[in-house]
User: What shape does this take?
Amino acid sequence: MKVAEDYVQIFDTTLRDGEQSPGCTMNVEEKVLIAQQLEALGVDVIEAGFAAASPGDFESVQRVAGTVSNSVVLSLSRTREADIDKAIAAVEGAAKPGIHVFIATSDLHLEQKLGMSRQEVIDAAVWAVEHAKKHLDYVEFSAEDASRSDVDYLCQVFSEAIKAGACVCNVPDTTGYGVPAQIREMFRYLKENTEGGHDVIWSAHNHNDLGLAVANSLAAIEGGARQIECTINGIGERAGNTSMEEVVMGIETRRDYFNVHTGIVTEQIYPASQLLSKVIGVSIAPTKPIVGENAFAHEAGIHQDGVLKNATTYEIMKPERVGRLSNSIVLGKHSGRHAFAERLKALGIDLEAVNVADAFDRFKVLADKKKEIFDEDLFALVAEESDVPKRYELVGLDVDSSLDGTPRAKVTLLVDGQERSHEGGGDGIVDACYQAIKRVTGLDPKLERYQVKGITGGTDAIGEVTCFIRVGDVGVRGHGVHTDIIMASALSYVDALNRFEYRTPVVSGEAREVGP
Ligand code: KIV
Ligand code: ZN
Assistant: This one.
């Protein structure tokens, strides 16, 4: 399989390598939402998960496979028969199914991790690719820890994998150890010295341990790679993966230098970045290229003067090109449903993927409290949507706080439709709310993470609270968005508890005791 010499395929692994990183886990619905956004972005390949990892992962791959129609959807798989069979079953419903088989090739991994000889690794790789190929045409093969492997041995492994049927050969820098010149040369060498090396797509998969993932990916393109594996916002194991927005805009902005292009709809980059950030509750550093808050902000007087005279003096990309609309004050309380939906569309939000009517109701409530609604507010409103059935609903919150007294909160929830309240104190006002919610629900989760973010400026700004709670083995995240930060905190906690209940549904007749 080949792509045009000047085309670079984008392989997105946000849902697999990205989701593997701490704090970035997503439930099935969230993965489907992200997959829809990836398709709107125009990514060529979506790695939807590692089907054999757990029944939840299998279901996620299956759901994404059934949702996406334009991109190839694949599952990661070790070279084991059971893994491959699960991966194949999970992508069965995809319009364009595929599989990604990997095994490590560095002597370090062979000796210390696998306990296999070089020949045994080749045999396992060949067997796995041949087995997968009986069911699927699209088979990618990866040599894990390739950048620390003997390059002539790599040529041998890839030659055999190609003979067995692999159409994409992926060369991961698993530990983020490579540097650009070395990666560029490695690709050149592999392409020239692997049998069949000119008939397949060479792919780069770089980790960011030394902050070089994007640079290494661009160097790989110079060396002949025509697929880049990356994630939205660069999330992933340890320091993350190649950041999609950076590598894509590197390619597109410097077409004059690299002489290649991608199929990415660049206007969808910012919406995708915002959506992921809201879904996983991980905020983006202000200085992050392309999608950070300051990425297009000019502070220095000389710069501002230059940009006003001609934007290209200090701007190498137009913000609109990556979906950042310059006119960001948009709607107010008199705006109607149609204007609301149009603005969501202009922001690149897929109207089929969100419940516009519900989002509009939330917008109206917000518009009553806040004069101006910014684009960031709209992203937050949409991300607040949850398909999770609501066992608990916050219907009342009274708080009392003073400098010298113990903060107190009275919380009223609907629990399975019945109103229940509790009033009590805490170490702070948020703690008092959370203690009261615990008493009402009868749950005692551990709060592992609590993050508050003011979405837009001003004292009437929306506050977004993300919390991560754990009940036994089950860790879930909750979101709350409100102009009152205490309300947002309570809403996020209640959302997390609903998500917990959704994962471990209460069996009728065994309902947990709830408080007063
Ligand atoms: O980093 C890595 O080596 C991987 C492989 C499984 C492709 O993620
Ligand atoms: Zn990886």
Remarks:
- Residues 201 and 438 are 54 Å apart (CA to CA).
- Residues 504-516 have pLDDT under 50 and may be disordered.
